[in-house]
Design goal:
It is a single chain. This protein is mainly alpha-helical. The protein is built from 20 helices and no strands. The protein has helices at 3-14, 34-38, 49-53, 56-73, 77-80, 93-109, 113-130, 132-163, 169-178, 180-209, 216-237, 242-259, 263-272, 274-293, 295-305, 309-322, 324-362, 369-378, 389-433, 456-459. Helix 7 crosses helix 8, helix 8 packs across helix 15 and helix 10 packs across helix 15. The radius of gyration is 31 Å and the shape is globular.
């Protein structure tokens, strides 16, 4: 290219564009949001559990649930507070509950969230091992309280997902009260069934391997029990069938016939039937494991579907069997989220107790101030405390408020369990049944209700 042409081309390129002739700037694409990146995924919905658990209404319901459970643990003290020789029973349920709560709060003070969670999770098993008969008696009222209050939290969380709006605690609690029978049966039913199977296996061993032949009265009781169980099952499922009652009566007659056999006949028959006892035990253990894993979803199933107890339990068991690895992954997501939430809340509340106790007593002078400070920090009377009458009363009141604050931390844990269980149920239902997470039963409408929302892809809004 000639030098003159090269200079002309350079001047043209460097010259400004005339007005109105400049090229339009290329549009800048908006950055993708978190919703855009996770659209179509199920697990991100579980991340809402922490925020829902901190709702004041949910924490309040959980707090009353914790208080009522603590009061319920005091009921066995009416007949088992002291032994026959007058000495106190140190491992009675109320003492075990108080010890577990104290150790959990102590672990939270040291920021050991995992240790606190293990203390609370292991508490039911410890109570069952120490007092199996007492816990069997207390199972139904325990399930009723856990189901009603927890079901209210689950219903409120599910409604927020379905409608995009918050449900008042009175509406949620009223809905849970209306489904109290289904909630109680869904929570207590599997454990009662497993306990009944274990009891029947034990009784079979007793009658087969070391017993005296029973009389006709025992046989009649067995037949009546078999028929009664069939009728109760039909009443709970609202499908009483004559065929099932007849089959139960036949089974009862067979068992009654075995009971009246002499030992020489019963022993070999029991040895031959031991395989059936083994199968029944393994099956009961499998059902127990599925129930424990799916326990957070039982109340949520009743609240979301408005179904009866049997259908709710069957749904949860099916979800556990259908996608166990997906369920474990979702539980890990919820567990990590819950650990972070409880850790932050625990540090805030328990740290606030210590700071407030030091500030409130910083300018106070005189004897007993240090003991009052310990009262306010830990909620318990310090050992070897030397307090006057008014100081003793003041310390007890300060300790009472400290215990309320500590129970609020436990209430946050309980609230998270139920809110997380509600979202976990919706997520597993979406994976296993393909049912939309916004599909929640509304008893006031003739059809199921979902959220009336516009797709974000059409509006570009979150």
């Amino acid at each position: 290219m000639a030098p003159g042409v090269r200079i002309a081309v350079s001047l043209f390129l460097l010259a400004p564009y005339p007005r109105g002739m400049s090229p339009a700037p290329s549009p800048r694409l908006p950055l993708p949001s978190f919703h855009d990146l996770t659209r179509g995924l199920v697990w991100p919905g579980l991340l809402r559990a922490g925020g829902m658990a901190l709702r004041p209404a949910h924490v309040g319901l959980a707090f009353f649930l914790v208080v009522l459970l603590i009061l319920l643990s005091r009921v066995p003290d009416l007949w088992m507070s002291t032994a026959s020789d007058g000495t106190p029973i140190l491992n009675r349920p109320s003492v075990q509950v108080d010890r577990a709560l104290g150790e959990a709060v102590g672990a939270l003070r040291e920021a050991r969230v995992g240790a606190a969670a293990r203390k609370l999770i292991a508490l039911p098993g410890e109570l069952v091992r120490a007092h199996p008969l007492v816990m069997a008696i207390m199972l139904v009222p325990l399930a009723m309280l856990w189901g009603v209050f927890g079901g209210a939290i689950a219903r409120s969380a599910q409604w927020q997902v379905a409608r995009g709006e918050r449900m008042g605690w009175t509406d949620a609690f009223g809905f849970a009260l209306a489904k109290m029978v289904s909630l109680t049966a869904a929570l207590a039913g599997p454990f009662l069934f497993v306990g009944a199977v274990f009891g029947l296996v034990a009784l079979a061993g007793r009658f087969f391997f070391a017993r005296q032949p029973a009389d006709w009265m025992a046989g009649a009781i067995v037949v009546a029990a078999a028929v009664g169980i069939a009728i109760l099952q039909g009443a709970l499922s609202k499908r009483v069938r004559a065929g099932r009652i007849i089959a139960a009566a036949v089974i009862g007659v067979v068992i009654a016939g075995v009971l009246v056999l002499p030992q020489a006949w019963a022993g070999p028959i029991g040895g031959g039937a031991y395989g059936l006892l083994l199968i029944a035990t393994i099956g009961a253990l499998l059902l127990l494991a599925m129930t424990v894993v799916g326990l957070p979803m039982l109340s949520a199933s009743v609240m979301a579907e408005g179904n009866d107890a049997i259908e709710a339990v069957q749904r949860v068991w099916a979800y556990v069997v259908h996608s166990p690895l997906r369920l474990v992954a979702y539980l890990i997501v919820l567990g990590l989220q819950g650990a972070i939430l409880v850790g932050v809340v625990g540090v805030l509340v328990l740290g606030g107790l210590e700071v407030c106790a030091h500030l409130a007593t910083a300018l106070a002078k005189g004897s007993g101030i240090g003991d009052l400070r310990q009262f306010a920090m830990f909620g318990e009377r310090p050992m070897a405390a030397n307090l006057d009458g008014w100081q003793e009363t003041t310390g007890k009141l300060m300790g009472w408020w400290a215990k309320v604050a500590m129970l609020m931390v436990v209430a946050v844990i309980v609230s998270f369990v139920h809110a997380g269980g509600a979202l976990l149920y919706l997520a597993m239902r979406r994976v296993c049944d393909g049912q939309d997470q916004t599909d929640v039963w509304d008893p006031r409408a003739s059809t199921r209700v979902g959220a009336a929302r516009i797709d974000d892809s059409e509006t570009g809004e979150e």
